[in-house]
Every structure is written in C-alpha cells, then in structure tokens.
Amino acid sequence: MYKLITYNVKVIFGNKFVYFVVAAFLFFAFIITITIFDDPQFNEAVIYGFLVFPGLLLIFYPMAYGIQNDDDAKMLETIFGIPNYRYKVWLVRFVLTIGIAAVILFVLGNLANLTLYRFNILPMIGQVLFPITFLSSVAFMFSTLIKNGNGTAIVLVIVSFIFLLFAEPLEYSVYNIFLNPFEEPRDMSEFIWLTIIYKNRVYLTILSVLCLLFGMFNLQFREKFV
Predict the structure, then answer these.
(1) How far apart are CA 50 and CA 29, in angstroms?
(2) Which of 90, 128, 39, 123 is nearest to 225 (CA)?
(3) What letter does residue 184 receive in the DSSP assignment?
(4) pLDDT of residue 128
C-alpha cells in the first residue's frame, strides 16, 4: 500500500513532490510577510485566505499535467488497455492529490495557529478544501478535454482569473467560488449568512462531482488519448 501511494505521488507530482511542498511553504510565508507589512490584523478570515492559495498551488500541477505525465511516461496505453482501470487510477490520484493538499494545509494551519492567530484548525481546513476540490475537478475535466498539460494549465489560469475577478462583486453571494465563510458581513443576519455558506458549499460539492463525472466520461473515448 505504501509503495502504491509513493508511486502515485511520484507520478502525480512528476517526481517533484518536494519542490511543490517547499513552494507551498514559501508562498505561504510570502503572503504572510506581505500581510504583516500591509495590515497586521489577523483573524480567521485572513487565515482562510492564507491557506486557499497554497492549496491551489499544490493541486495545480497534478491536475493540469496528470494525463500528459502518463503520456510522457508511456503509461497511457497500459492504463487504457485494462478495462475500467483508467477510472480507478485517476480517481485514486484525484483523491490522493486532495488528501496530500489537506495534510500540507493542516501543517500550514498549525503553523499559523501557533504564530499568528488561534483558531479551530479542522473546520478551517474543511472549508478551504471546498474551493480547492472544485478547482481540482475543473482542472481534471479540462485535462481530459485538452489532453495537454500546457494547454490545460493556460485554460485553468484563465478560468481561475475569471473566478477571482468575480470574487469581489460576488463577495457575499452563494455563487462566489472563493466565498470566505469566516468573513461575516456586518449588515446581514447570522441566519442568512449561514444559509449562504451552506448553499455555496452544496453548489461547490455538486459542481465538483459533475466535473469529475464529466472527466471520467471523457475517459471512455480511448482513441482520443492513445
């Protein structure tokens, strides 16, 4: 089991897992440093923002370049050659990617909890994983359509940028992908705010499942990949 996980981690991160972990920690330290000089007021809403972007960094490469990495390693023929094997492989890798991101975010969350601001770590990580899982499933879906790592990466950057553009106009909307559940608006009742958070998370979950299923559906067409 350990060897299987280790092998898949190497494939997912293209033998560059350590670099991605280091990059996540450096990026986390970078945005904290900027915030300290800009606005040293830390709270749960700020910590949430700190954790989302390193999480996105961790899932970006595995989701965008997963299929291309298999193609470069001459593994696509093998994966598609065994009936239904491709679904299991990429589903396991998807779950593994999210799991690894969650573990690293948990470590980053503990660092923030010890050095910046006291908060409940598990609820925080749970909330952070909603947009990360959604964008992971979107990236996986695009990778099955484009079948090229660079092309998928470009599309994913554009899509993420569009989501970020609408994040401010839709700041407290159920349709905001980057809705911060810890940033409660002052002119809104707690009940309405909790309802918005609940609906937003339900929508993200449903969309994540749909994108993942659509990506799996695209894997049926073997001739498009090999």
Answers:
(1) 9
(2) 90
(3) -
(4) 94
List the structure tokens of 180.
């911060």
The answer, yes or no, to whether residue 131 has pLDDT greater than 90, is: yes
Cα–Cα dist 90/142, whole Å: 14
Q: How far apart are CA 143 and CA 154, in angstroms?
A: 11
CA dihedral for 54, 160, 200, 93, sign (positive or negative): negative
Rounded Cα–Cα distance for residues 97 and 105 (Å): 12
Q: Which two tokens stand for residue 217?
A: 């559906």
pLDDT tens for 140-192 read: 888 888 877 788 888 888 988 898 888 888 888 999 999 999 988 888 888 99
Region of residue 69 (phi > 0: left; psi between -120 and 50: alpha; otherwise: beta): alpha
CA distance 91 to 66: 12
> Does residue 6 have a pLDDT over 90?
no
Residue type, 148: N
Could you give the CA distance from residue 108 to residue 110 in angstroms, rounded to a whole number? 5
